[in-house]
Amino acid sequence: MSHILDIERLSVDFATARGTLQAIHDVSFSIESGEIVCLVGESGSGKSVTSKAIMRLIDEENGSITSGAIKVDGIDISDLSKLSLQSLRGKKMAMVFQEPMAAFDPVFTIGSQIVETICRHDHNSTANQAWQRGVELLRRVGIPEPELRMKAYPGELSGGMLQRAMIAMALSCEPELLIADEPTTALDVTIQAQILQLLQELKTEYRMSVLLITHDLGIAAQIADRIVVMYAGKIVEQATAEELFTQPHHPYTQGLLQSITTLDSDKSQRLYAIPGSIPGLADLPEGCRFHPRCPYASERCAREAPELQDRDGRQSACWNVGQLLEGSERGKTEVIGAMRVGETDRTLQPLIELSHVTKHYPVGGSFFSRAHKVIQAVDDVSFSIRKGETFGLVGESGSGKSTLGRVMLQLERPTSGSVRFEDQQLTALSGARLREARKHMQMIFQDPYGSVDPRWKVGDIIGEPFAVHGNVRPSEKREQVEELLQLVGLSPSAYDRYPHEFSGGQRQRIGIARAIALRPKFILADEAVSALDVSVQAQIVNLLQDLRQQLNMTLLFIGHGLNVVRYVSDRIGVMYLGKLVEIAPSERLFLRPAHHYTRGLIASVPIPDPNRRREFASVEGEIPSPANPPSGCRFRTRCPAATARCAVEAPALRAIGSDHFVACHDPL
């Protein structure tokens, strides 16, 4: 088969305030016509730089190609003029970005931007023909009412629709190569499944090649023909998906595969995590760049960098492949004897109880008139969390998970209903009494970058709760903070450093240290690991499990990564459009889901095994607006089993078994 893309010994440098830094070094791989190749690795490994180099977008970021060649359909683009590049972009190659909101201009409609792209590359098309072509493209990528969406602005579309529109614009000139840079990272598991299904269909329909960049190996297993693994700016392994998952030939690949949390992960064992973190471009080690984190490292690895070599039709860059293939015992997971498995004790007293909690936001009003519509973010939710358990909360974006969590901590007051914490009615507290109660309730935020003040030193960030609640003398603050740093696996020397000096995983540890500073009884972890790489994610999950046992904490774990939520949780609640639709012990929920929405969520999770590939079974469509929810059962517009009764009667949450509740007229 012919190659649509050939990259030969490519190196890219960036000019920075610290001098010239090499982002990728000696990278070589190719993509055949009609092939899907996945580029995987942790953040900082050079995946996105490689994709931008192919499109020559690095020119706009102080980057430059210092050596090597990039050939698209035989044309070397590494030194093409900007005018020549414009003729290739769109026609020969196109790109789908991770953040479609940043890729679209917010002041122009979706349609005007698609039309502009078509007219720029097809001079024979009139504006009206380009408009009709745009409508057909939006319809093809699954956007309902495409004529209306063409007239909409980017801010009026949901994340899933916007990503589809981005794909439609990329396809507008029928490119031979589509580059997709983390196109599903910010999406719910159901929308992710729809986008991946769409990419597979479009590849066949348009006979395209696809370069998919991802850090989710489950996605790579389900969609890739071949996988290229990058680490610290270099390729360390290339193989077919089946070969790579069956027997990795590099310790880094092996570590990534071991770090995956699956629906089968043993809850009695710690998750495997690659020790340490990926080095910065200014601090690359000598020899093999992975050797400081490698369980197979030898003296030669520290001195001499291995070349990418062919072995049995695949490639790897490792001096100790033979030792790895022999099946060393190093790196296996360790059993945590004290970790709970299965169901929690139903006799345990509730720590938090919610009773008919509702949170509505008025919209559409003005200073002179009252709002005539409300966003029903949370609607009549009642449940409890028992002392010492981890309660998981899952559901798509817009289901009300985070709003419910903020109401539980009284960061937002409920419209109606009550929240009881031990013997206190939190909704009746205010001022000093509420501040006193909050000592026992803390939060870990999703964004490890935005949740800490970049102008504060780490010691001040972690020590702030002591200052607010005044229970530690200033002379004792440093000692207490250093103990917390050690507890979360950081060096006490971090006390005098700033957040920008740490990686994402380390910043999340700082956030955790701050949250546990007052030894709270309850922790709300809101998407605390969703923004992290798979190995760093495993490190943080292990840390939370350890702290939960050491400090006897109760945890509410909100997430859309169902694999991780299942692993950490004793019980799980499923939310949809402001309503709780199912509650069950973790294992029972995944083995025997009772609600059709729960089953759809589980079926949408990609399996990290190329030999178990399946159609991306997903929930059809997108979650409706909470400002205009459907009548009756709110899930009925997407439910394959909906009946006439579902349209007129909202199902109540009722018991169907021991500790198992569901809101469905016809449960599974």
Name the strands of the widest sheet in spatial order: 6-7-8-3-9-10-12-11
Instruction: Please work out how many helical segments DSSP would assign.
Output: 23
The CATH class of the domain at 351-440 and 518-662 turns out to be Alpha Beta
For the termini, the CA-CA separation is 47 Å
Anisotropy-based shape: globular
Low confidence ranges: 329-342
Protein name: Dipeptide ABC transporter ATP-binding protein
Family: Belongs to the ABC transporter superfamily.
InterPro entries: AAA+_ATPase, ABC_Ni/Peptide_Import, ABC_transporter-like_ATP-bd, ABC_transporter-like_CS, Oligopep_ABC_C, P-loop_NTPase
Subcellular location: Cell membrane
SSE arrangement:
Layout: E1 3-16, E2 19-32, E3 36-40, H1 47-54, E4 63-72, E5 75-76, H2 82-88, E6 93-96, H3 100-103, H4 110-121, H5 127-140, H6 146-150, H7 159-171, E7 177-181, H8 189-206, E8 209-213, H9 217-223, E9 226-231, E10 234-240, H10 241-246, H11 251-259, H12 299-303, E11 309-311, E12 314-316, H13 321-325, E13 350-363, E14 373-386, E15 390-394, H14 401-408, E16 416-421, E17 424-425, H15 431-438, E18 441-444, H16 458-469, H17 474-487, H18 504-515, E19 522-526, H19 534-551, E20 554-558, H20 562-568, E21 571-576, E22 579-585, H21 586-591, H22 596-603, H23 644-648, E23 654-657, E24 660-662
Parallel strand pairs: 3-8, 3-9, 6-7, 7-8, 15-20, 15-21, 18-19, 19-20
Antiparallel strand pairs: 1-2, 1-4, 4-5, 9-10, 10-12, 11-12, 13-14, 13-16, 16-17, 21-22, 22-24, 23-24
